[in-house]
């Protein structure tokens, strides 16, 4: 009898939210799992990792939606997205990891204003150029600016001429006066995006953005260094073919150890689709001027579409840095399921 009562209670727990959500928010997510052979060699040429791992690759669960307000053409918007570790069930004891979290207002003709923690316009400007996002071949392994920031206030214009969008975001430092990061807009991220379905192009700029991608190169001290960066992206979608490219420069906002560091990143990517198959590749290089060093990324792979929102895939990636002899390789086989309701 007790077991029967427990079963009814558990069933009700799941049934009630389903009723409440009907016709309201959209629940969505992605399960993105790979079984990978990973090898990592450190800056001294010593192999630290050489094993097989099950990877969750930023699998996620989220809810988003909007509702009308008592004001003409004005809508409330919100989104709550959390990362989940499919392989281990938690991450450091946390079942959910905060990803893109926001709330805001959207006007039919004046654009959208939102606040919270989410990907910067600079990061989003990459579009679909990165063919291996969330995997070992992700461009974040060589390029600065791939940031999800807290305390963002962002304005997004309506789509101008149905093809152009402007995004401007700023972040208060929220630190004490001694750190000089106590102003209303200590960091700024912005982008200008053109998208007509066939061609995608974007220009993006970051000003004094905290970025830890090159901390080891810029400074041995803990914590982010502040970076100014410019990014230009272009991508063509022509039937079965996709071609993309990214060029960016990133430099330290202030001298570090008496030096200004400037790094230049270039990346090209492409894909060819036939029937259910998609074959893809990308190659990128970051030149680090002060270190007289170079970090490169190479990735190749193939996707097999099993349904509208599901695929199997295999890939190989290699990230290496010349002078320090750092190298990381991934050989993976996995699947991805997307869902929404």
UniProtKB/TrEMBL annotation:
Membrane topology note: Multi-pass membrane protein
Record's subcellular location: Cell outer membrane
Cleaved signal peptide residues: 1-22
Molecular function GO terms recorded: porin activity
Superkingdom of the source species: Bacteria
Protein name: Outer membrane protein (Porin)
UniProt entry keywords in alphabetical sequence: Cell outer membrane, Ion transport, Membrane, Porin, Signal, Transmembrane, Transmembrane beta strand, Transport
Record's subunit section: Homotrimer.
One GO location term (cellular component): pore complex
An example Gene Ontology biological process: monoatomic ion transport
Listed Pfam families: Porin_4
Residue ranges of domain Porin in the record: 9-323
């Amino acid at each position: 009898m007790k077991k029967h009562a427990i079963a009814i209670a558990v069933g009700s727990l799941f049934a009630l939210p389903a009723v409440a959500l009907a016709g309201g928010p959209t629940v969505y997510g992605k399960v993105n799992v790979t079984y990978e052979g990973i090898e990592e060699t450190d800056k001294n040429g010593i192999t630290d990792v050489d094993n097989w791992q099950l990877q969750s690759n930023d699998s996620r669960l989220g809810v988003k939606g909007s509702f009308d307000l008592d004001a003409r053409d004005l809508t409330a918007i919100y989104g709550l997205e959390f990362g989940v570790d499919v392989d281990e069930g938690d991450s450091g004891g946390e079942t959910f990891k905060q990803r893109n979290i926001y709330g805001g207002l959207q006007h039919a003709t004046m654009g959208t204003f939102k606040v919270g923690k989410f990907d910067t316009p600079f990061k989003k400007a990459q579009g679909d150029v990165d063919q291996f996002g969330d995997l070992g071949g992700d461009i974040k392994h060589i390029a600065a600016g791939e940031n999800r920031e807290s305390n963002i206030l962002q304005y997004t214009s309506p789509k101008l001429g149905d093809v152009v969008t402007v995004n401007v975001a700023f972040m208060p430092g929220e630190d004490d006066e001694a750190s000089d990061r106590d102003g209303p807009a200590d960091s700024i991220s912005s982008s200008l995006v053109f998208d007509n379905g066939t061609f995608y192009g974007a220009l993006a700029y970051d000003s004094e953005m905290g970025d830890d991608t090159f901390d080891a190169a810029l400074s041995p001290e803990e914590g982010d260094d502040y970076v100014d960066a410019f990014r230009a992206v272009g991508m063509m979608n022509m039937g079965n073919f996709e071609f993309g490219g990214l060029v960016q420069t990133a430099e330290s906002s202030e001298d570090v150890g008496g030096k200004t560091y400037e790094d230049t990143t270039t990346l090209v990517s492409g894909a060819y689709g036939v029937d259910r198959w998609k074959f893809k590749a990308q190659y990128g290089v970051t030149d680090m001027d002060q270190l007289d060093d170079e970090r490169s990324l190479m990735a190749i792979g193939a996707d097999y579409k099993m349904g509208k929102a599901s695929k199997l895939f295999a890939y190989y990636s290699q990230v290496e840095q010349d002078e320090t002899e750092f190298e990381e390789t991934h050989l993976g086989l996995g699947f991805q399921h997307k869902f929404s309701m």
